TrEMBL record:
Cofactor names: Zn(2+)
Gene Ontology CC, one term: cytosol
The organism's place on the tree of life at top rank: Bacteria
NCBIfam families according to UniProt: cbbA
Pfam families noted in UniProt: F_bP_aldolase
Active site per database record: 82
Protein name: Fructose-bisphosphate aldolase class II
GO biological process: carbohydrate metabolic process
SUPFAM superfamilies hit by this protein: Aldolase
Keywords assigned by UniProt, alphabetized: Lyase, Metal-binding, Zinc
Phylogenetic placement of the source organism: Bacteria, Bacillati, Bacillota, Negativicutes, Selenomonadales
Length: 282
């Protein structure tokens, strides 16, 4: 199947009550792992890379590989810039052929976030590219208890933001956390349901690693249509290397790369099986 716009995938997910996995990749091994599991399970896929990784990887080369892999895939794939923080980063992703971009202005004032997101949406839509915005604060907390009601998105603000920016999807803060959890997250499902009934676009969960299967189910029933996974893929790769080296200290790099791919595939598969997206490829 060809590349598709993220808007198309998430609207179907909202209609049929499942979540598309938004998996961030950072090299050829993780790219291959995610695509292969999506094909195995016949799931739609959002394949992403965050702007912060631009300084660590050769994104010109990796983005070309992502585009080629998506075009060859037997399932629909959207290429997505995750957590774009700058105009320049968003424009790079559009030039690379990404079908979706996220502008994360959640650390800005509401007015400035709205202003910048609206301008990026205007440009992206003129080129057929979907846009995801973010409201509230899904931070990187050292302690999950630091998350409180002040960080959560208010329905009236979400409605105004979506109406004025015309974004295709909205990432909302309802109790999740980027990075590694220290403690158990407490998701506000009633707030999520209220947001879902207030705005007319699909909702996105960031900080989706390590939740329970029940949390994923309740989130999807409450309106989540995309769940982002990044940290756990990186951890799965690192833990696989550690385990293999511990077993065989003479293991060569080619062998380790193949093991990393298998380890990441196992992690991706576990998440996809929790998202109710199996055999939902359209």
């Amino acid at each position: 199947m060809a590349l598709v716009a993220m808007k198309e995938l998430l609207q179907d997910a909202r209609k049929r009550k499942y979540a598309v996995g938004g998996f961030n990749v950072f090299n050829f091994e993780t790219l291959g792992a995610v695509i292969e599991v999506a094909e195995e399970l016949k799931t739609p896929l959002v394949l992403g890379i965050p702007e912060r990784l631009f300084k660590f990887v050769d994104v010109d080369t990796l983005s070309a590989a992502m585009s080629r892999a998506a075009q060859k895939a037997s399932v629909p794939v959207a290429l997505h810039l995750d957590h774009g923080h700058t105009y320049e980063g968003v424009m790079k992703a559009i030039r690379w052929g990404f079908t979706s971009v996220m502008f994360d202005g959640s650390a800005l004032s509401f007015e400035e976030n709205l202003k910048r997101t609206k301008e990026i949406t205007r440009i992206a839509h003129s080129l057929g590219v979907s846009v995801e915005g973010e409201l509230g604060y899904v931070g990187c907390y050292g302690n999950i208890q630091d998350i409180n009601e002040e960080n959560f998105v208010k329905p009236e603000m979400a409605h105004a933001f979506v109406e004025k920016t015309k974004v295709d999807a909205l990432a909302v803060a309802v109790g999740t956390n980027h990075g590694v959890y220290h403690g158990s997250p407490k998701l506000n499902f009633s707030r999520l349901s209220e947001l879902n009934s207030t705005v007319n676009v699909p909702l996105v969960m960031h900080g989706g690693s390590k939740l329970t299967k029940e949390d994923y189910y309740s989130s999807i029933q409450s309106g989540i249509t995309k769940i982002n996974i990044a940290t756990d893929m990186s951890l799965a790769a690192a833990e696989t290397v550690k385990a293999e080296v511990a077993k065989n200290q003479s293991a060569n790099y080619i062998y380790l790369m193949s093991m990393v791919k298998n380890g990441v595939k196992d992690a991706v598969r576990r998440y996809m099986l929790s998202f109710d997206c199996i055999s939902k490829a359209i």
